[in-house]
Design brief:
The model has no long low-confidence stretch (mean pLDDT about 90). The protein is elongated, with a radius of gyration of 29 Å. Helix content is about 50%, strand content about 10%. The chain starts with 14 loop residues before the first helix and ends with a helix. Strand 10 (about 155), helix 6 and strand 11 (about 185) form a beta-alpha-beta unit. The protein has helices at about 15-25, 35-40, 60-65, 120-125, 150-155, 170-180, 185-195, 205-215, 220-230, 245-260, 265-275, 285-295, 295-310, 320-330, 335-345, 350-365, 380-385, 395-405, 415-425, and strands spanning about 30-35, 50-55, 75, 80-85, 90-95, 95-100, 110-115, 135, 140-145, 155, 185. By secondary structure, it is of the alpha+beta class.
Length: about 425
């Protein structure tokens, strides 16, 4: 097949799937790889999600064919979805279906399968043209009734039909697609999305789309542009332009995205959400935003913690004092995220980054508080070993010694033991 660049590309397809497609053809049916697989293949990107739509066959006939290659599992009885695991690959087969809006929310649809539908009729229910293409098996002939290939080539995100408006989740999907595939919204899609509400969506669904926008490879600034074009900021007023500029906020998101790829997904999200909310000065607003989209404790705690620090912390020479570095690491639980954030922040000058931020982080590594925060050397067990009887003063003594440790006065266990013995002697 040919990619958008006009190059010959042979996408990976399990041999078993091609054999199944041939069996379906022999039974007077037809099968198409659909959705993300087709889009990715045109971009010469490998996709291991094999979603196949089957036309012109009854379910019993398809199950009989699939049974030759493994044990088919009817996982979506209402939707006619059959899952087949074969030699490490996951294959999903479904039948063309129609959806009718019968209730509120993302799940308020009546879904009916219709094996007699044409591919064009079935694709009419999909969200965007770039996802409404099919690759007929086994010969890989492109079926593209709504111009998805042309839109993908022109980097345009366009909805397929008015049925788009029946599912509000598609509005947020537009944000992550714009970011992942470097797309801009078609004017008619922008106009339609601006009339839709997402208030019926659960926080789980909203959070999933935010994650795909901020975590998956792409250009988050283009997602932000789609977010603004669709006027989604009316639902999330906590997101504000950085120093009065949406473009600057987009650049910040891109810089965070590029520099945080080595972090865990959770830490990437903490960085991205902190950047996204960086212009907001109200801690209550930050918490309100997060509580509306997630219940993940690490995010709910991590974002306000980093946001609160960076909202007041500026690279200054007094920050280079070892005592300041230890206390900074203690407040943040380590300094990796602060370094990433500070080096990506467009409001920190090149001079501040080179003369303050980088030396600070090198010093943090040198004194052992870059990855993990400092911990008290003195413990309750040490005090008991020295003959102290447990009491509330244990905590006071440990905290007092820890303050001296943070100041660099007490550096080793020997220093701490000597200090404790002196305290004990003077208290008698």
């Amino acid at each position: 097949m040919q990619t958008l660049e006009g190059l010959e590309y042979t996408p990976f397809i399990p041999k078993a799937l091609l054999s199944i497609a041939q069996e379906i053809d022999k039974a007077n049916g037809a099968s198409y790889l659909v959705g993300g697989w087709v889009r990715d293949a045109l971009l010469a990107e490998e996709c291991r999600d094999f979603d196949v739509e089957v036309y012109g066959l009854d379910q019993d006939v398809l199950l009989k064919i699939l049974s030759q290659y493994g044990r088919p599992n009817l996982v979506g009885r209402a939707f006619g979805v059959i899952h087949l695991a074969h030699k490490g690959f996951s294959l999903d087969f479904s039948f063309p279906r129609t959806e009718s809006k019968v209730g509120e929310g993302h799940r308020g649809f009546l879904v009916q399968t219709h094996t007699h539908l044409s591919f064009q009729e079935a694709a009419y229910r999909r969200d965007f043209t770039i996802n409404a293409m099919g690759m007929k098996l086994p010969d890989l002939v492109l079926e593209d009734p709504y111009g998805g290939r042309d839109d993908l080539e022109k980097r345009i995100l366009r909805h397929v039909s008015p049925a788009f408006a029946e599912d509000s989740l598609r509005v947020l999907r537009g944000v992550q697609f714009a970011s992942r595939f470097h797309l801009t919204l078609a004017p008619e899609t922008t106009s339609l999305c601006r009339t839709l509400s997402i208030e019926d969506l659960s926080y789980e669904r909203i959070f999933e789309e935010f994650k795909k926008w901020l975590l998956k490879p792409g250009k988050p600034s283009l997602g932000l542009q789609a977010f603004l074009d669709m006027d989604l900021n009316r639902f999330f007023p906590e997101i504000q332009p950085l120093n009065g500029s949406w473009e600057l906020l987009g650049s910040f998101l891109d810089a965070i995205h590029e520099s945080s790829v080595s972090f865990s997904a959770t830490n990437q999200l903490i960085l991205a959400f902190t950047a996204l909310l960086s212009e907001n000065k109200e801690e209550q607003a930050i918490n309100h935003f997060l509580e509306r989209i997630t219940n993940e404790i690490k995010i709910l705690r991590g974002v306000p913690l980093l946001w609160k620090e960076v909202s007041t912390w500026k690279p200054e020479r007094e920050n280079l004092a070892e005592s300041s570095i230890r206390r900074l690491s203690l407040r943040l639980g380590g300094l990796e995220l602060l370094e990433c954030y500070s080096l990506a922040a467009p409001y920190n000058t090149k001079e501040e980054k080179e003369l303050i931020v980088i030396p600070l982080m090198e010093k943090a590594k040198e004194i052992g508080v870059y990855i993990n925060p400092p911990e008290p050397i003195l413990t309750g067990k040490m005090l008991m070993d020295l003959g102290f009887k447990p009491g509330k003063f244990f905590g006071e003594l440990i905290q007092e010694s820890f303050e001296l440790q943070l100041d660099g006065i007490l550096k080793t266990e020997a220093d701490v033991l000597t200090w404790v013995q002196e305290k004990k002697a003077t208290s008698i």
